[in-house]
Write a structure and sequence with these properties.
The chain is an alpha/beta fold. The chain is built from 12 helices and 9 strands. The strands form 2 sheets. The chain has a 7-stranded mixed β-sheet with strand order 5-4-3-6-7-9-8, sandwiched between helices. The chain has a two-stranded antiparallel sheet with strand order 1-2.
Length: about 270
């Protein structure tokens, strides 16, 4: 029987697999939570070799490793993911970090995460602010099931509505202090990697002209946000000027900001009401 280390070197030599993905699959097969834990047992016998080989083949075929192991990390916390939800991105982590900084002085707040998917945004904000009332919405039944599963795992109470962006709240006359969302903003599937296009949900990726969903959220938000409310959206780097103009028309006297991500790209639109 081969050790974990021997399996690592043999697989790295014989299979077309990136180093990080290989280590993730080794952890998954052997039941380790972290790379460090695996390295402590580096010379132990390899477990579940058949399961490991099956996972390697799936990743080699192009399937994202997060879907293979049904897990992705967001702000260092694990979340269940499958092909019904988008794999969380580092840029979205940046947006949530910005939101936490912007809300740190508020003692009472009702916020909603639109298109919640895995629930990582809503759950992260509830964990940061247990005293806040956190809502979420998604149009996908399967995505809502995933979000509820993750909320249960992280032991947080969030209220999830099914529907199109803010419409479930508008129908119930629910007002909020903060709206946050990472809506679909890719205009063409030709601009994304094949594995993303093939495996991740198109409903969460693509939008007509790239701003279809942002436009609808901005229009709907005007009847949902309370005074001093905040709207924060993740955007495509080329959409900032257009979306800022739309927000200016919808929110008279509001402060409109376009912020860059860590790659220096315009990535976040923030609207702060007077």
């Amino acid at each position: 029987m081969m050790t974990i280390e021997q399996t690592y070197h043999l697989t790295k030599k014989q299979r077309a697999l990136g180093d990080t993905a290989l280590k993730i699959l080794l952890c998954h097969a052997n039941g380790f939570a972290t790379f460090n834990e695996m390295f402590i047992h580096w010379n132990d016998n390899m477990a579940n070799r058949e399961k490991f080989d099956e996972c390697v083949a799936r990743v080699e075929s192009g399937e994202p490793v997060q879907y293979v192991i049904n897990q992705a990390y967001f702000l260092s916390r694990p979340y269940y993911v499958d092909e019904s939800v988008l794999i969380p991105r580092p840029e979205t982590e940046e947006m949530v970090t910005m939101a936490i900084a912007a809300l740190k002085d508020r003692t009472d707040c009702r916020l909603v995460d639109l298109g919640t998917g895995s629930g990582c945004i809503a759950i992260s904000l509830k964990l940061a602010f247990p005293q806040f009332e956190v809502l979420a919405s998604d149009i996908s039944t399967r995505a809502i099931e995933v979000a509820k599963r993750n909320a249960d795992f992280h032991e947080v109470a969030i209220t999830i509505h099914q529907g199109d962006w803010l419409l479930p709240l508008i129908e119930k006359n629910v007002m909020v202090d903060v709206i946050i969302s990472n809506p679909p903003y890719i205009a063409s599937r030709h601009t994304v990697a094949p594995d993303v296009c093939e495996y991740e949900p198109h409903l969460a990726l693509f939008a007509k002209d790239g701003v279809e969903h942002h436009r609808r959220i901005i229009n709907q938000a005007a009847s949902v946000l309370r005074p001093h409310g905040i709207l924060m959206l993740e955007i495509d780097e080329d959409q900032g000027d257009l979306l800022a103009q739309l927000a200016t028309k919808s929110f008279e006297g509001a402060k409109i900001e376009i912020s860059k991500d860590l790659q220096g790209k315009n990535r976040f639109l923030t609207v702060t009401l007077p």
